[in-house]
Amino acid sequence: NYPKLPLFVTGIKSVAKVFGISVSTISRMKADGVLDEAILQNGKTVIFDTYKMLDILRLSNHNTKFNRKQS
Question: pTM for the full model?
Answer without folding.
Answer: 0.76
